[in-house]
Design a protein that fits this description.
Elements: H1 2-6, H2 17-29, H3 43-54, H4 69-81, H5 87-106, H6 134-146, H7 152-161, H8 165-169
Helix pairs in contact: 2-3, 4-5, 6-7
Length: 174
């Protein structure tokens, strides 16, 4: 019985990334909504998934066992560093690769999903802005007041309330 369970005669056994990716895309393409099939993925969702996975063509010849979470994270971080993709795209591509491996386990191609439970590292780039210190805020307000700057009251309100720029812009004066 166990031998029968392990045999999967109808499942193609991909050896490298391009074959696994193609098998996954073929599977989800069959789930795309049509006029005859009203439930399933939208064509746009399929196109997005395919587009994200197209960013991994560099790995096509790699054996699927070499496409590990660490490898994928390092490759995608290189893409971000080289400004080939944004950090947001990095997260989305990683999620799609994770989904491909989950599909491989569910369809019997792999026995273990090495991406299961793997989380993406927190963003560590210096792009996140820091808040002003108390001294910097006081200096800004003092100089703006001294020069009678037109944005003095806006800056005062922002610093006093902690509102974001978009929240300040949405205020209505009555």
């Amino acid at each position: 019985w166990n031998q029968c369970l392990n045999e999967k005669p109808n499942v193609a056994q991909p050896k490298n990334w391009v074959e696994l990716r193609a098998l996954f895309l073929q599977s989800i393409k069959s789930q795309v909504r049509t006029s005859g099939q009203l439930s399933g993925l939208s064509p746009r969702t399929y196109d997005l998934k395919k587009g994200r996975l197209d960013k991994t063509v560099k790995w096509d010849d790699m054996h699927i066992e070499l496409v590990t979470p660490k490898f994928v994270q390092e490759e995608l971080e290189t893409f971000v560093r080289d400004e080939k993709i944004s950090y947001s795209t990095y997260r989305k591509v990683f999620f799609e690769v994770k989904e491909v491996f989950q599909f491989a386990v569910e369809s019997g191609v792999l026995t273990f999903n090495s991406f299961s439970g793997v989380k993406i590292k927190a963003r560590t780039s210096g792009k996140r802005k820091q808040a002003l210190t108390h001294e910097e805020a006081n200096f800004l307000l003092k100089e703006a007041h001294k020069q009678n700057h037109p944005h003095y009251f806006i800056w005062l309100l922002a610093l006093a309330t902690g509102m974001r720029r978009s929240e300040l812009a949405g205020l209505k004066w009555t």
